[in-house]
């Protein structure tokens, strides 16, 4: 039977194996973003040609979910969808022809019946409603939309979240085991037992996570410099070619909750009711993002092809 002194060594080996894997994925993600970003800056056609569409801006600002929010806003303002007093969305069966995105919202509501905002946004996002916008901004050099880049970023996000969870569990167990040892009079050599092993694992995982912060202290995102500049220069009142075009564009830039805070949705209107639903969703998403570190931003939740090879 193994003695207690073996626990630190076992945890050190386990931690180093994970740390090596995590650092490799982190390095891969940073290298790909840097490589593709430099290609975009050197290559032709990185500057926008003509105005940027509402859904392209929405995707750059908040990924698939933001594009889905803009589509829902357009469907409601265009009469394709109605909002009950409790925030439930349902197909209205009326409305002038709109964009393909608004029509997709109406078709989904007509097919599946009344639904709340959050599950509707998830279905739209995973169903590919933002794929045309992603292809457009990728082609214009505003976004690194290659599957290879997005897969690397998604794997980096997953390994970082596992690392944060592992640190939390290891730290909590180390403290509990120290207190358990104190209750039995065994605190003198706690670092040679299970508590010491958990402490070793805690610090090894923390060192691996620190590498990501040192390599890229800012949020690592697939939006290029040109894309960030396009967002910064975006003029929210510039679109009026669709029903409620200005409001839809504002939702694309700020989200339903953000547009409501900016005073775009008067109290009691359908979009104001949806904004109240979206506010709770966005708050919980921000909480998870903050608690687990850099989760990679909102651009990794949409559909991707099978793992690419290069």
UniProtKB/TrEMBL annotation:
Transmembrane domains' residue ranges: 6-26, 162-182, 188-211
Keywords, comma-separated and alphabetical: Membrane, Transmembrane, Transmembrane helix
InterPro entries xrefs: Ser/Gly_Cys_C_dom (IPR026467)
Chain residue ranges for the region called Disordered: 287-310
Domain of life: Bacteria
Sections of the chain in a coiled coil: none
Name used for this protein in its record: TIGR04222 domain-containing membrane protein
């Amino acid at each position: 039977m193994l003695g207690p002194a073996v626990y630190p060594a076992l945890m050190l080996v386990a931690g180093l194996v994970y740390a090596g894997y995590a650092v490799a994925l982190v390095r891969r993600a940073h290298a790909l973003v840097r490589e593709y970003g430099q290609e975009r800056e050197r290559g032709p056609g990185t500057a926008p040609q003509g105005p940027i569409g509402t859904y392209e801006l929405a995707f750059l600002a908040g990924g698939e979910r933001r594009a889905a929010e803009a589509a829902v806003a357009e469907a409601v303002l265009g009469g394709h969808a109605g909002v009950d007093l409790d925030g439930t969305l349902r197909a209205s069966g009326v409305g002038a022809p709109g964009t393909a995105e608004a029509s997709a919202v109406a078709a989904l509501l007509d097919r599946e019946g009344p639904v709340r905002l959050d599950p509707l946004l998830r279905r739209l996002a995973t169903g590919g409603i933002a794929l045309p916008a992603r292809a457009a901004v990728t082609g214009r050099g505003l976004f690194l939309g290659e599957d290879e880049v997005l897969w690397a970023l998604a794997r980096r996000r997953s390994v970082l979240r596992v690392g944060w969870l592992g640190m939390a569990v290891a730290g909590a167990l180390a403290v509990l085991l120290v207190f358990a040892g104190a209750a039995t009079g065994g605190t003198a050599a706690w670092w040679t037992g299970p508590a010491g092993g958990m402490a070793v694992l805690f610090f090894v995982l923390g060192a691996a996570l620190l590498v990501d912060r040192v390599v890229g202290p800012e949020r690592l995102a697939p939006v290029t410099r040109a894309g960030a500049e396009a967002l910064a220069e975006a003029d929210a009142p510039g679109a009026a070619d669709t029903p409620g075009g200005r409001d839809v564009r504002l939702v694309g830039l700020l989200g339903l909750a953000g547009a409501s805070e900016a005073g775009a949705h008067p109290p009691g209107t359908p979009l104001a009711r949806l904004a109240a639903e979206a506010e709770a969703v966005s708050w919980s998403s921000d909480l998870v993002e903050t608690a687990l570190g850099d989760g990679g931003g909102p651009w990794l939740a949409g559909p991707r092809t099978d793992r690419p090879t290069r």
